[in-house]
Predict the structure.
Amino acid sequence: MQIGLKSSLLGILAVSALPLVNAIAQTTLSETSRIPALPQINAAQPGQSALSFTEANTDEISAAIQALSRQAQVKEDALAALASQLEEKHDRLEREQEVMALRSRGVLAARPVDAYRVSSNFGHRQIFGKNQFHKGIDLAAPAGSPVFATGSGVVTRAGWVSGYGQFVEIDHGAGLASRYGHNSRLHVRVGERVSERQRIADVGCTGRCTGPHVHYEVLKNGQHVDPNIHLAMAPTR
């Protein structure tokens, strides 16, 4: 079923892209030399043993062949560009299908920040000499970097929360939620519907924080789960 769907989509993409090929070729061809008039080939006359050529000499024939060769190269380049575009679209469609499959299994297949370093992982850790359970993962990133929603959903909390600083929580449905803490600025409000990879905040160091980072949490049915499970499924950018 999926193979058939992919074949159909590729067929549609190929047909829809044909005008692009013609446009590229037409634009480029207009910049090349016009093809000289090809020689007139006459049938052998009584008493002649071979065909004869008129209205064109050797130089004109050579120029015509060169112009035809340039046109063939233009068409070849246009088809190569089309093939590259179709391959990119095919890869994008496959990625979208993978994301949809992961989402149906309750996986947030996106990263909350593009360039980051894991500064503190999920689980038990020592804080000020005390063993505490870290409910999320800290992703160190430059201050002001965009913070993205890791899945589509509805904003259920947006504002200051003790310890978390400027904080955002998103309900993704099916018992899945994500949280983003220590932001310097928020771009969403409670009740707002957001899409995957929508910018919801900026990286900061508000609340209990020692350096700019995103404190990222994932909850399933109200229970904290390791965000690394979801980050492992997200594509790099």
Summary: The first strand starts at residue 40 and ends at 42. The helical segments are 2-29, 58-104, 228-231. The two ends are 30 Å apart (CA to CA).
